[in-house]
Amino acid sequence: MTRAELKSSAKEQIRGKIGIYFIMVLIIFAISLACAFIPFLGSIASFIITPAFSLSLCMFFLKLTKGEDTSVGDVFAGFNKTGRALWLNILIAVFTFLWSLLLVIPGIIKAYAYSMSFYVLADNPELTASEALAKSQSMMRGHKMELFILELSFIGWFFLVGLTFGIAAIYVAPYMSATMANFYNSIKEA
Question: What's the pTM?
Answer without folding.
Answer: 0.92
